[in-house]
Amino acid sequence: MRTELRAVDTSSAPDLVLRPWRADDLDALIEVYRDPVLQRWTRHPVTTADQGRQWLKQTQQDWDDGRRFSFAVLEDVADGPRLVANVVLKGVTPGGPAAEVGYWTAAWARGRGVAPRAVTALSRWAFAQFTGLERLDLLHQVDNPASCRVAEKSGYLFQEVLPAYPPFPRDGHRHALTASGPVAATVSGDAR
Ligand SMILES: CC(C)(COP(=O)(O)OP(=O)(O)OC[C@H]1O[C@@H](n2cnc3c(N)ncnc32)[C@H](O)[C@@H]1OP(=O)(O)O)[C@@H](O)C(=O)NCCC(=O)NCCS
Which end of the chain is less congested by CB atoms within 10 angstroms, N or C? Predict the structure, then answer.
């Protein structure tokens, strides 16, 4: 079921390709995780090559287990694909009505709508792929306004404030998108 997705370009940013992570993404992964902002907002920071290999191995195992699906997001540029982000669909259960999305964008690629476009492509794929899936949740801490904007721009509507949950010390927001939400209108290209 491993698959590749596409998200359309914008006036200032190229197409995005979303594909499962591969072992040869190691150097790019470690480079991205040098960013302290990313380290602050992630549960499992990658700081060494061993951690990176373990991270990549786990994402491949997760695909095989069928509950968590991580995609490397690459810009489709002339001199070759470049890693710009990660998006993940998690908490999938057979026939289950709800799952969750997560994401980060490399520091050098922020502010160009990478995360909203990738989340939109991922959301569309999720609803098409998993029978019975009716709702996707998106969680972020209250003091992460950039992530709140990603939710809004991806069509995820604010639902509720959640109490703080380790390792994040502050309350969070839950946003949600339903299968009949606006996602279908904002992405071109199909899961292949
Ligand atoms: C949150 C995050 C994924 C946004 O990704 P992105 O691809 O930059 O998304 P966008 O381009 O749509 O920008 C979203 C918001 O980020 C802010 N932003 C804009 N340019 C930025 C830049 N150069 N650097 C940082 N943030 C910027 C703006 O508030 C923007 O909202 P706006 O479009 O209303 O101006 C990214 O900042 C990130 O990876 N942060 C660290 C990890 C993280 O927070 N993950 C989510 C955990 S819930």
Answer: C
* Superfamily the domain 5-185 falls into: Gcn5-related N-acetyltransferase (GNAT) (3.40.630.30)
**Mean pLDDT of the residues in the chain:** 92
Atom of ligand 1 lying closest to residue 110 CA: 8
Long-range contact pairs involving 68-73 (C-beta distance under 8 Å, separation at least 24): 68/92, 69/20, 70/20, 70/21, 71/5, 71/18, 71/19, 71/20, 71/21, 71/118, 71/122, 72/18, 72/19, 72/20, 72/21, 72/22, 72/25, 73/16, 73/17, 73/18, 73/114, 73/118
The model's pLDDT over 98-146, given as tens digits with 9 standing for 90+, comes to 999 999 999 999 999 999 999 999 999 999 999 999 999 999 999 999 9
Q: In angstroms, what is the span from residue 111 Cα to ligand 1's centroid? A: 6
pLDDT at residue 176, rounded to an integer: 97
- Residue 165 — pLDDT band, cuts 50, 70, 90? confident
Mean pLDDT, range 13-36, rounded to an integer: 96
Residues with CB under 6 A from ligand 1: 37-38, 41, 103-105, 110-116, 140, 144-147, 149-150, 153
Domain ranges of the chain: 5-185
Stated pTM of the model: 0.93
Q: How far is the CA of 87 from the centre of ligand 1 (A)?
A: 13
